[in-house]
């Protein structure tokens, strides 16, 4: 703010100097010029008169005494002329500008500067804090929409930019625009050819569109991708994630371990290690309950980073429950991709039961439960050992709940 006022002061000062300096310079020059002209004129008249007297003395028209007297009078007259006022003939030819002109110009400069600053500048916003975050006041969905619009505009100017298409495809997945994502990856492959790094994200978009199911079409894309590159991270992440939520933990570990053993530098190895450890814990848990080691206790104790769900069965469905059923509970973000943030399973014998989900039950991805504000919670009482609800399974759902809160979930739907 100080810099702005300094700039304004300098601007006004320079403007005033440009207005007033010529005025004072003109006055000084006129005074000097007038004095010089008067002096030169008087000296010229004095010399001419003196020359006339000398001529008359030489022609003996004057004697020496008369000459001396007239010369003295001429010198006195010269001195008097030097002390006279201004030369009337010069003043009549050059009229100096009065103070009215520079004064009027100064008022105009100050007035116009103040008017434009008040009406076109940011005077009204001087007391308003400028947010450091350009996305202040926007939620995640709005930020993603803005980002996609910018990328789409750039793509119109660069339709052959395959890297931009690749990034736009991933953005479409994050915005749940799966058809647009598939089109973006197909367009990129038209430009650069069929590659596993494009097939993997395409299969992921198709997977989410199919409600997280590997359909024959999705499996075909997965097979094609792994045939081109058996170590493609995006494809193996999809295979591992689907296997994990189908309780095929060994298959999930194998898929993720291939990524971990590869020499690729573009993968989050710590996240993959966490995912593998989570799968191993579930393999080792005989009852399916979450471990109670120091790591998990610390995670549960983190204030505001967990969700607690009291799960029960609707009375009319109790006859559909058997002791061999498994209850899968998972939470996923209400905004962006419907990727599970945390999940666990318990035996149906434990019902009704209180379940607490935290980061220790996470999938190992970049987004954790503790990063979310609100989540959707789904409970599946499975008779087939799979987290995916199948005919005959029971299901319950909480559309939204705040992270850090407790809610009740009733399993009240028979999957047909």
Report on this model:
The protein has 416 residues and is α+β, with helices and mostly antiparallel strands. Helix content is 54%, strand content 13%. The protein has helices at residues 2-58, 64-82, 88-93, 100-120, 140-157, 162-174, 178-192, 196-209, 216-228, 233-245, 249-261, 269-284, 294-300, and strands at residues 307-313, 326-333, 340-347, 353-357, 374-382, 394-402, 406-411, 413-414. The strands form two sheets. The chain has a five-stranded antiparallel β-sheet, with no helix packed on it. Strands 4-1-7 form a three-stranded mixed β-sheet, with no helix packed on it. Strand 2 (326-333) and strand 3 form a beta hairpin. Helix 5 runs antiparallel to helix 6 (162-174) and helix 6 (162-174) packs parallel to helix 8 (196-209). It is rod-shaped and about 160 Å long. The two termini are 67 Å apart.
Give descriptors for this structure.
five-stranded antiparallel β-sheet, alpha+beta, 416 residues, three-stranded mixed β-sheet, single chain
């Amino acid at each position: 703010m100080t810099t702005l006022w300094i700039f304004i002061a300098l601007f006004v000062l320079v403007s005033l100097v440009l207005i007033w300096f010529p005025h004072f310079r003109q006055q000084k020059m006129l005074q000097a010029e007038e004095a010089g002209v008067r002096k030169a004129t008087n000296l010229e008249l004095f010399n001419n008169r003196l020359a006339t007297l000398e001529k008359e003395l030489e022609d003996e028209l004057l004697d020496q005494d008369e000459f001396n007297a007239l010369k003295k009078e001429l010198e006195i007259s010269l001195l008097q002329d030097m002390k006279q006022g201004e030369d009337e003939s010069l003043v009549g030819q050059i009229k100096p500008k009065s103070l009215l002109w520079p004064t009027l110009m100064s008022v105009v400069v100050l007035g116009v500067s103040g008017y434009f600053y008040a009406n076109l500048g940011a005077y009204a916003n001087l007391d308003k804090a400028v947010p450091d975050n350009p996305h202040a006041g926007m939620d995640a969905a709005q930020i993603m929409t803005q980002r996609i619009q910018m990328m789409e505009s750039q793509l119109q100017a660069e339709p052959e930019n395959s890297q931009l298409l690749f990034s736009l495809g991933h953005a479409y997945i994050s915005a749940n625009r799966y058809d647009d994502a598939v089109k973006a990856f197909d367009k990129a492959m038209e430009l650069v050819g069929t590659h596993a790094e494009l097939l993997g994200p395409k299969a992921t978009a198709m997977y989410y569109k199919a409600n997280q199911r590997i359909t024959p079409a999705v499996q075909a894309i997965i097979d094609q991708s792994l045939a081109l590159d058996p170590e493609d991270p995006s494809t193996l992440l999809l295979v591992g994630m689907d296997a994990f939520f189908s309780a095929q933990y060994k298959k999930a570990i194998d898929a993720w371990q291939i990524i971990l053993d590869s020499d690729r530098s573009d993968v989050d190895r710590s996240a993959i290690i966490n995912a593998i450890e989570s799968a191993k814990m579930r393999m080792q848990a005989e009852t399916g309950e979450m471990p109670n080691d120091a790591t998990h206790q610390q995670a549960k104790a983190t204030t505001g980073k967990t969700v607690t769900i009291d799960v029960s069965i609707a009375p009319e469905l109790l006859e559909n429950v058997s002791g061999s059923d498994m209850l899968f509970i998972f939470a996923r973000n209400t905004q962006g991709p419907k990727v599970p943030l945390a999940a666990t399973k318990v035996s149906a014998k434990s019902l009704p039961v209180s379940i607490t989900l935290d980061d220790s039950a996470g999938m190992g991805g970049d987004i954790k439960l503790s990063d979310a504000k609100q989540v959707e919670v789904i409970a599946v009482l499975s008779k087939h050992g799979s987290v995916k609800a199948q005919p005959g399974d029971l299901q319950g759902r909480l559309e939204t709940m705040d992270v850090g809160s407790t809610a009740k979930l009733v399993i009240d739907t028979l999957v047909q």
